[in-house]
């Protein structure tokens, strides 16, 4: 029996030393991912505590009539969501946010893409223009909103002063309910266009130059090269730009909050946005359950739009081939 037991490793064709060596190699390979997981544990724990748990707690709050100053917090089920569908303030905020988001995303993308194509060509001032366009992205939003508030001022704003130089009447940019939302759209496009421009530039410069040269030798025009080569290869960047821009646009708050305060600002209802409505219900009227239902609805809307964008602008090399 002993001799048979000793011959077992040889019977399967693997020496005992070889099995030990393989085991040591596997353990050595497992050390690297194990070390990575252990090193990431503090970060994952912080992310869980700061992000995941609050999201879950907010979703739970949406099923309660959770008032910060009331000791009773009864379970109301889907009543908060049903009330949302008949709340004029919420429906107006949803309408304004949707108009703002679609306009800002569309204009910033349509303007940034041709600018990126133009600045991708070699030129001495290309870096200068990139810096100029990117400056609004890194500018703090609160002081920038205050500056734009004065730019839009009816009596002293530089924008109306420029209109007066060409004989045009002053425009009540922030006090007219029909214009205030579009004034915010202009500012939003100005804020984000530089970020989209840099992303498109990175994508264009990573396109192999041989593709464009081959198309030029085949007689393709500049438009044909852009439409048939540049744009299809930019699909991953375009998708990223659309998704991030949509998420940021639907979460607009700071400029709306700052620019709707004071005598030279628009009426609150004219530029009421979803996040502003959530803030008002949660931290001014202490209706945390109702505000949580609004936040969950906003999350579902953004998630749905993201899925649609992935379906419309997906990069499937197999189908394109």
TrEMBL record:
Gene3D superfamilies noted in UniProt: MetI-like
Cell compartment(s), UniProt: Cell membrane
GO cellular component, one term: plasma membrane
Family matches, as CDD domains: TM_PBP2
Main location: membrane
Keywords: Cell membrane, Membrane, Transmembrane, Transmembrane helix, Transport
ABC transmembrane type-1 domain residues: 94-309
Bilayer topology annotation: Multi-pass membrane protein
InterPro entries, A to Z: ABC_transporter_permease, MetI-like, MetI-like_sf
Membrane spanning residue stretches: 34-64, 99-119, 131-151, 179-202, 237-258, 295-313
Pfam family, one: BPD_transp_1
Gene Ontology BP, a term: transmembrane transport
Similarity annotation: Belongs to the binding-protein-dependent transport system permease family.
Protein name: Sugar ABC transporter permease
Taxonomic source organism: Limobrevibacterium gyesilva
């Amino acid at each position: 029996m002993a001799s048979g037991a000793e011959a077992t490793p040889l019977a399967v064709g693997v020496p005992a030393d070889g099995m030990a060596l393989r085991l040591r190699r596997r353990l050595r390979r497992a050390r690297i991912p194990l070390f990575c997981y252990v090193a990431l544990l503090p970060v994952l724990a912080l992310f869980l505590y700061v992000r995941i748990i609050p999201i879950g707690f907010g979703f739970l709050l949406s099923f309660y009539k959770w008032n910060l100053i009331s000791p009773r917090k009864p379970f109301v089920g889907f009543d908060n969501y049903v009330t949302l569908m008949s709340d004029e303030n919420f429906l107006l905020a949803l309408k304004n946010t949707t108009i703002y988001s679609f306009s800002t995303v569309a204009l910033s993308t349509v303007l940034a893409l041709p600018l990126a194509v133009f600045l991708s060509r070699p030129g001495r001032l290309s870096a200068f223009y990139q810096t100029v366009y990117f400056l609004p992205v890194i500018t703090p939003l609160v002081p920038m909103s205050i500056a734009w508030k004065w730019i839009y001022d009816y009596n002293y704003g530089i924008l109306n002063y420029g209109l007066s130089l060409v004989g045009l009447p002053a425009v009540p940019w922030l006090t007219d309910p029909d214009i205030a939302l579009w004034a915010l759209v202009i500012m939003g496009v100005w804020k984000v266009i530089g970020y989209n421009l840099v992303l498109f530039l990175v994508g264009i410069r990573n396109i192999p130059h041989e593709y464009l040269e081959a198309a030029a030798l085949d007689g393709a025009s500049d438009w044909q090269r852009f439409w048939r080569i540049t744009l299809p290869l930019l699909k991953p960047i375009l998708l990223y730009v659309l998704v991030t821009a949509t998420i940021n646009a639907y979460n607009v708050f700071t400029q709306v909050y700052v620019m709707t305060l004071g005598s030279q600002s628009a009426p609150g209802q004219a530029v009421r946005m979803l996040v502003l409505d959530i803030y008002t219900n949660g931290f001014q009227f202490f209706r945390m359950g109702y505000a949580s239902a609004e936040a969950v609805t906003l999350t579902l809307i953004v998630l749905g739009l993201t899925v649609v964008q992935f379906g419309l602008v997906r990069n499937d090399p197999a189908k394109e081939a």
